[in-house]
């Protein structure tokens, strides 16, 4: 519970109306899910304004509301009203205050690709010994992170948070709120270049996760990543590297794919198994193993957590249809994750053909054409039988692949998703394996849904 005066102090707000109710049970940013005696933050965005739902929040029993502009509220309503300059920043300020009241170890995870999976595997490993709180899905921004922190209670022993960003300053802001003792960076790759411009910009933003490290100040870095391996850290930090190429504290070797599982040997001693086709997930597993060992989880329990881990849907999920298979990796896409997915496709044993369906990779800014052409060149030199693209940027990938590939007739570009689906239905043969991937806004899962209904 929080007190209204405590909230006013933490958010630097003016208490412009005070009711007799001083105790707050919870924090809400959505009037639809608000519970009695919650405090409602009227957040404002490009397409919404929470101030329009204040009266609804009051009717549902809100004990207090936080506003950033003048609004007419029934004078008879028994409600605490706090006024701030920016309700979103006030939400973060209160989350930081609440985090201080719950002083448990917190692990923060970021990176250009794999951070959600890394966060989930870390939570699964630590869950063998602790009661773990984690943010659901990709609730990793200036709203999702505070909302997760407000769920902390005295039953939790440890917290694992994914921190996301697409603008400079966001990682530092979220890290300041979360105050982690452990920071994990999965990799540095070309994502959100619309704002970060280049890999140096991505690295500059991601490394800010260590800016507000507290307590033990532990950092886990991908030792195979050229940016992270050269990252300069203060001497008082405890740094661990994980990888499979460079010498690292947490190493994987002997990596194989068997029966839809990836198997590897950890530090030349322990055998581990992951229920996935993606070998690149070994990096996420290594980060989780490292966190588990740091927090005293036994090797056998870590092994069990990895073997039982359930990967989220649309993240390189294998779907077996009547006479062909789909690798559904439609959740999102950037050059790094697409390259790893293509490597998985080409390593897949099949009696038929390997087909890649690529949708546009978005938020790459001025480098969109260049990076799509680079991916086309990459695909042209991989053992892929048919390459199909969707979107204005992916056309550059198709054009480049045609100019560099010997299978020019096996490369196609579509502007219409319906036309692509119709073409693919006619093209599929028995034994084919099809990788489907694209950025979130491309909604490539529509293609998966259509194909699974056909055969």
Shape: globular
Q: How many discrete domains?
A: 3
With helices defined by DSSP (H or I, 4 residues minimum), what is the helix count? 16
Report the helical percentage: 25-40%
Give an overview of the whole structure.
It is a single chain. This protein is an alpha/beta fold and 455 residues long. It folds into three domains: 2-84, MurE/MurF, N-terminal domain (Udp-n-acetylmuramoylalanyl-d-glutamate--2,6- Diaminopimelate Ligase, Chain: A, domain 1, 3-Layer(aba) Sandwich); 102-308, UDP-N-acetylmuramoyl-L-alanine:D-glutamate ligase (3-Layer(aba) Sandwich); 317-454, Protein-Tyrosine Phosphatase, Chain A (Alpha-Beta Complex). Helix content is 33%, strand content 22%. It is built from 16 helices and 22 strands. The protein has a nine-stranded mixed β-sheet, with helices on both faces. Strands 17-18-22-19-20-21 form a six-stranded mixed β-sheet, with helices on both faces. A hairpin with a 4-residue loop joins strand 17 and strand 18 (325-329). The relative contact order is 0.08. The mean pLDDT is 94.
Question: Could you list some keywords that capture this structure?
Answer:
455 residues, alpha/beta, Udp-n-acetylmuramoylalanyl-d-glutamate--2,6- Diaminopimelate Ligase, Chain: A, domain 1, UDP-N-acetylmuramoyl-L-alanine:D-glutamate ligase, Protein-Tyrosine Phosphatase, Chain A, 3 domains, nine-stranded mixed sheet, six-stranded mixed sheet, 16 helices, 22 strands
């Amino acid at each position: 519970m929080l007190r209204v005066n405590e909230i006013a102090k933490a958010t630097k707000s003016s208490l412009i109306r005070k009711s007799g109710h001083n105790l707050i049970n919870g924090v809400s940013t959505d009037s639809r899910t608000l519970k009695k005696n919650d405090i409602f933050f009227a957040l404002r965005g490009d397409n919404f304004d929470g101030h329009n739902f204040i009266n609804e929040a009051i009717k549902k029993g809100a004990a207090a509301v936080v506003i950033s502009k003048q609004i007419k509220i029934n004078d008879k309503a028994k409600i605490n009203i706090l006024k701030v300059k920016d309700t979103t920043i006030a939400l973060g300020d209160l989350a930081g205050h609440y985090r201080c009241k719950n002083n448990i170890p917190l692990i923060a995870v970021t990176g250009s690709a794999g951070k959600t999976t890394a966060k989930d595997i870390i939570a699964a490993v630590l869950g063998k010994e602790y009661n773990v709180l984690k943010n659901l899905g990709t609730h990793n921004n200036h709203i999702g992170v505070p909302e997760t922190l407000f769920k902390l209670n005295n039953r939790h022993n440890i917290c694992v948070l994914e921190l996301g960003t697409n603008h400079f300053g966001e990682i530092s802001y979220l890290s300041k709120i979360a105050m982690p003792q452990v920071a994990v960076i999965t990799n540095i790759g070309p994502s959100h270049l619309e704002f970060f411009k280049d890999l140096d910009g991505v690295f500059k933003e991601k490394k800010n996760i260590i800016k507000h490290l507290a307590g033990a100040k532990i950092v886990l870095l991908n030792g195979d990543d050229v940016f992270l391996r050269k990252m300069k850290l203060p001497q008082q930090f405890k740094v661990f590297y994980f990888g499979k190429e460079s010498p690292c504290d947490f190493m994987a070797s002997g990596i194989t794919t068997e029966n839809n599982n990836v198997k590897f040997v950890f530090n030349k001693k322990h055998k581990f198994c992951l229920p996935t086709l993606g070998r690149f997930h070994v990096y996420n597993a290594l980060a989780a193993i490292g966190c588990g060992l740091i927090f005293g989880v036994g090797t056998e329990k870590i092994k069990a957590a990895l073997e039982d881990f359930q990967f989220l849907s649309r993240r390189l999920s294998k779907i077996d249809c009547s006479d062909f298979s789909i690798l559904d990796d439609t959740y999102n896409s950037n050059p790094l994750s697409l390259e790893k997915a293509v490597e998985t496709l080409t390593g897949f044993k099949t009696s038929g053909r390997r087909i890649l369906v690529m949708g546009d990779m978005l938020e790459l800014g001025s480098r969109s054409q260049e990076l799509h052409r680079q991916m086309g060149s990459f695909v042209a030199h991989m053992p892929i039988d048919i390459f199909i693209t969707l979107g204005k940027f992916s056309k550059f990938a198709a054009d480049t692949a045609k100019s560099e590939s010997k299978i020019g007739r096996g490369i196609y570009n579509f502007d219409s998703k319906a036309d692509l689906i119709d073409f693919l239905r006619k093209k599929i043969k028995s034994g084919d394996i099809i990788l489907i991937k694209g950025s979130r806004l491309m909604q490539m899962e529509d293609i998966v849904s259509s194909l699974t209904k056909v055969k």
